[in-house]
Amino acid sequence: MKIAILCSGGDAPGMNCAIRAVVRTAIFHKHSVLGIKRGYAGLLRGEFEEMKLSSVGNIIQRGGTILQTSRCPEWMKPEYRTKAAELLKAQGVDGLIVIGGDGSFNGANALSKEHGFPIIGIPGTIDNDISGTEYTIGFDTAVQTAIEAIDRIRDTAHSHARTFLVEVMGRNSAAIALKVGVCTGAENVLLPHDHVPLQKIVDDIHRGVARGKDSSIIVVAEGPVTGRSYEIQKELALKHQLDAHVCILGHIQRGGSPTSNDRFIASQMGSLAVEAILSGQTAKVTVVQGGVVKLEDLAKCVIKNDGAYTEFKGLAEKLSI
Prior knowledge:
single chain; alpha/beta; Rossmann fold; four-stranded parallel β-sheet; 10 helices
C-alpha cells in the first residue's frame, strides 16, 4: 500500500514525532509513504515526495513540521477537493493521514464523504480544543513553554515589585491559560470570553500587598484577537490607578522541542493511524480517551471544544488567594 501524509493549519510541537511514527510503521510493514508538502495547498499543487527512513531521522526532537503546513481557503470549494482526490488516485495513494485541528478535520471529512477516500486524522494543535479527544499534540509543550517564561517573568516582577499581565495563546480555548495559571501560581486567570473583573483583580493585589506580597502575575488568555492585555492594562491604570506591565508570549509557544508527553502520544498516534489504514478503517481519528490512545469517528472530531480544563477554574481561584 501507499500512504500519504500532510500537516494542515497551525504547527504544533510533536507533529514531527507523528510523521516519524507514520513513516517508520509503514516501512516496518513493507509499505511506502508519500509526504505532501505545505498541507492541502501543497496537495492541490501536487507537491509529493517519497518518505524514507532517512527522511525522518533526527527529527523527533524538532518542533514545527518537516512537511511544513499552510491554510488553504480553496479547500472549502468542492471542485478543489475533487481535484485533490484525482491527484491522490493518480499517485496510487491508498490512504491519507491528516495532522491538524478542527478545520483540517472538517476538510478531511468533506473529502471522505464526497469521494470515499480513506482518511485517518491525527489531532495536532496547541489549543487542545478538538471534540472527541482529551488531548491534542502540542498542548503539553505549549503549556511548558509558557510556564518556563512566566517563571522568569516572576523573577523580574519580584525584583521590581511589579504586576505583570502575561498573555498566552489559545484563541477561544481556556485550556492553556488555566493549566498555566495553576502551574505558575498566578494571582488571576482571565479566560477568553469572561467579563474582566477589574475590581477583583485590584482587590486581590491589594490583599497580597497587605500580607507582604510585592508582585503579581495575571495570566490572560488571548481570545480572538492578540493584544487583549493592553486594553486590560489601560483600564487598570485609568479606573484603578494600578500600574501593570504586559508580556505577550505569542508564537514562542508553537515552537521548540516537544516534551516527552507530546513525543510519546504523537508516536502512538502516528503508528495507530497507519495500523488503521492497513486494516481497512477510514474516516477515523486517533484520540486520547480515558488516558488511552484509540480511534474515534472523524465526524465526532470536527467540532471545536473550547471547554477543556474549565473544570479547573475553581481550583485556580482557590489557590490564588
